[in-house]
Amino acid sequence: MRRTVIAGFALFAVAGLAGCGSSTTAGSATAGSASNSASKQSGSEVASAGNQAGGAIPARTIAEISTRTTEMLSTKGSYRLKGAVNVEVPGKGGQNVQMDGAAKHSSSGISMSLDYKTSGGPGGPGGDESFAMAYQAGVLYMKLPPSAGVPADKPWVKISQDGTDPLSKVLAPMAKQIEKSADPAEQLKYLKSGAATITQTSEEKVDGIATRKYTISVDLAKLVDLTDDATMKAGIKQLTQAGVTELPYEMWLDKDDLPVQFSMVQDIAGKAKTTTKITFADWGKDVTVAIPPADQIGELPTK
């Protein structure tokens, strides 16, 4: 039972991180559908039109976005992020998750920490709660609320991808998925795969920052053949079984092709509607990633 509670919090962490890397693993079954039906252009066609218009921030092709943004992410190496995930289930109400944190990317890997607050919902993982997540060197740390039954002075539990303890054995795949979800380079590689198409682009300001907005549609039939990730394949299968064939999402890039905002709406009729919005800031600045000290890491109660 305790493991189930932790899995619930970890799932919310994964859901939030799905947008952090401009992920193509999830998106919108509704947003952008009008532009899809009206005019579906290739990435190169949309980019060419934008460049001819002489915009301050040139429109780029799918391949250019993937290459350029990955290069800039590697150069900057750090950022702060804030976001919200709202889930609405017909007849059962909704649940909102707010998150706030920071991440660092280097040749040695990814480190990040996020604080979460949940509210509403049909109970679960716990209705109104606060918890936290940290990740470093292949190890996931979860700071659980009192409702999870952890000691007040040792609120963190440790989940290792190669751990032999019972908790790690159960949740190690989730730790690995969090690492992939948090790595923009890992996610952006799918943009060059032929599964993604730019359907619309325009210049917009986000919180006073000049950006170029892209609406991108992902063909699920093509995407499923391009990944060997079991979790990703399972998610795509669930969507296709619900009748979803394409997933448009939106992202806003600044003049350096760095992400400023990411948005997606996944609406499966009669089942659930999930809205995700992530904003990014302080690229390349000195950010704090809070990894818990050893004396705050405890064991999950067995009863």
Automatic annotation (TrEMBL):
Q: Report the SUPFAM superfamilies cross-referenced here.
A: Prokaryotic lipoproteins and lipoprotein localization factors (SSF89392)
Asked if Signal is a keyword of the record, the answer is yes
Give start-end positions of Low complexity composition bias.
26-44
Key words of the record: Signal
Q: Which Gene3D superfamilies match?
A: 2.50.20.20
Which residues belong to the signal peptide in this entry?
A: 1-28
Protein name, entry field: Lipoprotein LprG
